[in-house]
Amino acid sequence: MFVRYWMTADPSTVREDATLLDAFELMRKRHVRRLPVLRGTGELCGIISISDLFTLVPPSVVHMKTIPAVVTAELERRKVGRKMSAPASSCNENDLLDEVAETMRTRKIGALPVLRGKELVGIITESDVLGALAKVVRGGADTRRVCCKIPPGDERDVIARLVEVAKRFDIALAGVLTHPLRDEPALMAALRLRGERVEEFVKALWDGGFQVLNVT
């Protein structure tokens, strides 16, 4: 799963010499919480988020139709470059989504500008990552989900075994996700299946030593 397939391409941006009022109004207009910050050369130099402005803008003002004059004045006399987070953490469009998610988690940040070389081509947010995970796990409206424990010692060839069983019953594996179980020396497989013989597939899993936990 590459970042380029899940990012928001051509994101709204702001210049480092723009006022905080410019940035605030743009975030309100585009309904975004973060803006990559560019230098005059077009090079990424930082990122500014709506939370960076909360020392000047009460959160309640964000959704007001008209910004109070006192807030407008405070924002207009300050520049983005003095308030942004710099240097901005970023990622490449060909980075793997799980690695980017881990970067966000460990650094406690909600978004990363996406680069192609030095060119800004997108932004990936925590919502994008969760959306990607949800889409992969769901697999599609015409699929069914089966969760099962993988028999101990079978971890290395489990995918091959699942594919073999699926072929026997003309089942398409729309998605396969495996992960370790907490407090147990075992793995769980979450499968998304497409086909008419799911019940027979599930019985074959039981017969093959898989412990089926859930079928929906």
List the helices and strands and how they pair.
Elements (H helix, E strand, L loop, with lengths): L7 E2 L4 E2 L4 H11 L3 E5 L5 E6 L19 H8 L14 E2 L4 H11 L3 E6 L2 E7 H13 L5 E6 L8 H11 L3 E9 L6 E8 L3 H10 L3 E5 L1
Parallel strand pairs: 2-3, 5-6
Antiparallel strand pairs: 1-7, 3-4, 6-7, 8-10, 8-11, 9-10
Helix pairs in contact: 1-2
How would you describe what is shown here?
The protein has 216 residues and is of the alpha+beta class. It has 2 domains: 3-132, CBS-domain (Roll), CATH 3.10.580; 139-215, Alpha-Beta Plaits (2-Layer Sandwich). 30% of the residues lie in helices and 27% in strands. The chain is built from 6 helices and 11 strands. It has helices at residues 20-30, 69-76, 97-107, 126-138, 158-168, 198-207, and strands spanning 8-9, 14-15, 34-38, 44-49, 91-92, 111-116, 119-125, 144-149, 172-180, 187-194, 211-215. Strands 1-7-6-5 form a 4-stranded mixed β-sheet. The longest helix has 13 residues, at 126-138. The radius of gyration is 24 Å and the shape is elongated. It starts with 7 loop residues before the first strand and ends with a strand. The relative contact order is 0.14. The mean pLDDT is 90.
